[in-house]
Every structure is written in C-alpha cells, then in structure tokens.
Write a structure and sequence with these properties.
This protein is an alpha+beta fold and 570 residues long. An eight-stranded mixed barrel has the order 4-5-6-15-13-12-7-16. The chain is globular.
Length: 570
C-alpha cells in the first residue's frame, strides 16, 4: 500500500490518540502559549509512526517486514516523542543526508546498499518538499529502519551464528540500537556519522584486509574480458600448445599471480615456463597441488566466476562479525584451510606479534565434520589415553578385533569398566563394549591415535587438538580424515607455544614428557581462547588472497540464508 493511503483514518481515532500523545509529550500547537491542544499535523504524523511501527511492515522498502526491529524502533521513537527525527520542518537534516551516503557505501563492507534502500531513500529525500505529513512519517521510519539494520549487520552479522553453523552467542555484543540512533541523529558535524557507524565493525587487521580484497575482486568481476572462461583441455603441461594462453596470461596478471611486466613469450600460444610458474602461485593460493600442471581441479578454479569469489569474501566478512573479542592471545583453526594459527599480540613491554602456523587434519566432510565454536584451552595432557567413543568402538574397533583377534594387542587397545578397571578381551566383553556397558581405550604410546599430547578446551562436542602417528597425511592438500577432533602437524611446537609463560616447560622437558613412561597433565594458569572457524577465503598481511573449497557446504548454506532477505533467522 502506498504511504498516502495510510492517511485514511477516522477523526475520532486521531483525536483519542492526540490526547495520549499529549500526555506522552508530543509537541502542542503554540507551545509556550496558553494553547493546550495537540497540533493536528503533529498528531497525524505521530499516529502514523505508531501505527507503522506496531504493524512491523513498511510499504515501499525492498524488505518490507521489519518485525524483528519493531521493539527497538518503538523504544527509539517513544524516547523521541513519536516525532520525525531525520527530517526538519523545512526539509531534511544534514544527518539524514549523511546517513544515506553511508548506507550507499554498504557494499564496501560486504553488505548490499539495496538491502537498506539507500538509493530509494536518496530519491525520497530529494522530493521531500512535495511530501505530506504521513509520507514524511514513512520516510523518517524508513531511514531509522535502514540505520538499525545496517548498524546491527555490521556489529553482529545478519544471520545468527548458530543458524550459519558457528556456535557462539553474540547477544552480549549487540548494541542498544535506540540509544545508538538517538546519538546518531544529533551527531555534529554530520560527517561524523560515517566514523560512528564504522566503529561498530570488527577492529581487526585481517577483516580490513578482506575488505580491501573485496574492492579489488569486485573490480575484477566487472571486467567482461576476465569473465570469459578459459578453454578446458584434459591436461596442460609445460611446453604444450594452448590456444588460450594469451587469455590465461591476462587472467593471471589481473589476479596478481603473473607480473604485468613479465617478458612476452616467443610463442604466444604456448604454455611456457613463465605461465607455469604463475599457475603454481595461483595453485598455492587456491590450496591446490602447486606443480604448474593444469588439470581438472586447476581449470575449475581458474574458471570459477569472479563474482563467486566476491561472494566468498562477503561470506567471510559476515563470519568475522560473529566472533567475540579476540583478546591478546588465541589459538585459531580455520577448517577449510586445514590450518592452525596461534597468535599472541603485542603487549606492554613486548614487541611485535608471536605467531605460530601449522597444518591440521579435520573431520570428514558430511560424515564426521568438525564443529565451529569458541572454547577455552585449560589443560595439556602428555601421553594421553584415547577413550574410544562408542560410535567408533561399535562401528570400527570391535569389528576389526572380531575379524583379527590380534588387532587389540598390536594397536594397544584394552577393555575397561566405568572405573577404569582392566577387563579381558573376549566375545562377551566385546559384546558389552558394543552395547555400551564397557569401554575400549588405547594405551599411551607411539601407536596411540592421539599421538603423544592432547590439548583440552572443554566443549559439548568433545573435540580437542592432538597429535597423530599418521603424519604422512599432512602432505596431502585436502586433509579431512578425522572423526571430528583436530590433529596438529607439530604438537611439540604447539605445546611449547601454549606453555611459553612457564619457564619450567622448556622444549626439552616437553619432549621428555611426551616420551616418558607415565601420563601427565599441566593446567594452564591462564586459559587460552580457541576459535574453530570456517572461512573459505583469507587475506594475508602482504595482500595475498587465498581461497579454499567449501568443504562442508557451509558457504552454500549461508548464501541461501542471506538470499532470503530480512527478517534474517535470529
């Protein structure tokens, strides 16, 4: 329904509401005089604002249902006396113009200006002098809805993290939107609105680097020449003739994998060493085997539409907004990257940043996926037992023992009761294990599935970091082989980093504890936040942008949620 149609209302209803608004503090006609009646025009606008907010729908917004913001909007306008806050009697306010300018730049943060009706709002502001009172109310409300949506989206994301696959409660980080908007409408000079809104974004360098990468990839995606797919052949190796070699070179230059001033090839239709070296850099950035040979996987990556890369970056920025305060130190695992980062930021009296990076192995895609969540590491266990989960005992370990009676002895498995008392291995106890009344565990040692150390951060998934005897798997580019826990490439280095503040725990002592006779554990004096996250693109400090496959299909799921528009699932 057009906003003008909203004017159709009964006079008695307006009169009754006017009395209520008078009590609530709505301006009276002839304020400061003996007049004590509500100005009819003010009453009509206030009534329309109240009606529209209560209804939770706006007739001309792209996403008309704003029911998820109805309560903060009601509190905001009630605090403002149910009067227009972005509009002046003789037109618009500078704050309204600046707000619309900020909304129009939303794409720079991986959002979409059209979601906030930025360009429609600009048009409506330009024709404000022709608008009646009810239209002014509709416009003012639209500005407030756009502001609340944009600020909230920047602060905690559009979709609730749990809906997007990340278990983290962001409720404590949500802003008091009525108070924020009350401040925003009074910002002086108005140009400060941009800074006020930008201040709610994640304050992290990697987030800012991703925003820079987004601008670059948006420009690349707009280049029609780069959007043309390359001709696909079964395999392309150094020295092969390739008709699309010039187009391949242009794409590699645009992506930054080939220097723009690289020497021109003698044969422009030859896949030469220069192109192969650039393809190796491209393969490294896309988590492919970096051999310079273009096969099916590399052709697929080269021909992935750049618009799809833009969306990957947008989704990564969305997930950054789900993170809590990172603090001065953390251990982070990016599942699609198969990588762990341990970071200690600059502290008073300490220069630089202490950073550790290593490969990891994560849960099998679509079978035993590693969950994404936030935990706090509080214990390191050397020479751990592996208490085999019932599902693994029932589905893998017990059947292997039944087929091969020597399996338990070779691999160090034993059966115990609930108190940890040893039980003989026979048909009866194996059946009890399968039934869940007894348990299988693996003794510490070189064959133990957890390796020689594990790092505990209590969580409802019973997921932890640990070593592994299967070190050869770290050489593979795709590393989803676990039952959900996270295997680390260099457990000694990680233990050294985690225990670095305790001078007693030298590298030599860590190695000794891992190779000793008994199990032992160390409680951390200060627990370390652990972030298990999911990002299919990261931007490095040198500007390199690296992409990974959507291992668990979580990008596809989040993309579907966002495509549905407001109100997003929360």
């Amino acid at each position: 329904m057009h906003a003008r149609a909203l004017l159709r209302r009964r006079v008695p209803a307006v009169a009754a509401l006017a009395v209520a608004l008078l009590v609530a503090g709505v301006p009276r006609a002839g304020a400061g005089t003996d007049a004590d009646t509500v100005d009819p025009a003010d009453a009509a606008v206030a009534a329309e604002l109240q009606r529209a907010v209560a209804g939770g729908r706006h007739p001309w917004l792209r996403w008309p249902d704003f029911s998820d913001y109805r309560e903060p909007l009601a509190r905001f306008y009630e605090s403002e006396g149910w009067r227009p806050v972005w509009l002046a009697e003789d037109g618009t306010t500078p704050q309204a113009r600046e707000l619309v300018a900020v909304l129009s730049r939303a794409d720079a943060a991986g959002l979409h200006a059209s979601d906030y009706d930025a360009f429609l709002l600009a048009e409506r502001l330009d024709t404000l002098e022709h608008a009646g009172g009810v239209d002014r109310a509709a416009l003012d409300l639209a500005l407030s809805i756009g502001a609340m949506r944009h600020v909230s989206d920047l602060r905690v994301g559009r979709v609730r993290p749990e809906k997007g696959g990340f278990q983290n409660d962001v409720s404590e980080r949500r802003l008091d939107l009525p108070a924020f908007l009350s401040d925003l409408v009074r910002v002086s000079p108005p140009e400060q609105i941009d800074a006020r809104i930008a201040a709610v974004e994640p304050p992290y360098r990697r987030y800012r680097l991703l925003k820079e990468a987004l601008a670059r990839y948006r420009a690349l995606a707009a280049d029609a020449l780069l959007s043309q797919p390359l001709a696909v052949v079964r395999k392309l190796e150094r020295g092969d003739a390739y008709p699309d070699a010039p187009a391949l070179g242009r794409k590699l230059i645009a992506l930054g994998d080939l220097a723009a001033d690289a020497p021109a090839p003698e044969d422009p239709h030859l896949y030469d060493e220069t192109l192969a070296a650039a393809v190796e850099r491209f393969q490294t950035r896309h988590a492919l085997e970096a051999d310079g040979v273009i096969g099916a996987a590399t052709f697929a990556a080269l021909n992935t539409p750049l618009a799809a890369r833009v969306e990957q970056i947008e989704l990564a920025l969305e997930r950054w907004r789900w993170l809590p305060e990172l603090g001065s130190q953390l251990v982070g695992v990016n599942v699609p990257e198969f990588a762990l980062y341990a970071v200690r930021r600059e502290q008073p009296g300490v220069s630089g940043e202490d950073r550790l990076r290593m490969k990891v192995i994560v849960g099998r895609a679509f079978r035993t996926e590693t969950p994404n969540f936030v935990g706090r590491m509080n214990e390191v266990v050397f020479r751990p037992y592996w208490n085999v989960p019932l599902s693994i005992a029932r589905g893998e370990v017990v059947p292997k023992q039944r087929r091969d009676p020597g399996y338990f002895g070779r691999e160090g498995f034993e059966i115990v009761d609930g108190a940890g008392n040893w039980q003989p291995t026979n048909a009866s106890t194996l059946s009890a294990v399968a039934a869940g009344s007894l348990q299988v565990r693996q003794r510490p040692g070189s064959k133990n599935a957890l390796g020689l150390v594990k790092f505990l951060f209590p969580n409802r998934y019973n997921v932890y970091l640990h070593g592994t005897p299967a070190v050869s798997l770290f050489a593979r580019p795709r590393r989803d082989f676990s039952h959900g826990c996270i295997r680390v490439e260099d457990p000694v280095a990680l233990a050294e980093w985690v225990l670095r503040d305790d001078p007693a725990w030298t590298r030599a002592r860590i190695v000794e504890a891992m190779n000793g006779e008994e199990s032992s554990s160390v409680r951390l004096a200060t627990p370390i936040p652990v972030f298990v996250v999911y990002a299919t693109v990261v931007a490095d400090d040198d500007g390199t942008v690296r992409f990974f496959s959507d291992l668990y299909g979580q990008d596809a799921k989040l993309s579907r949620l966002l495509a549905a528009g407001y109100p997003y699932p929360w």
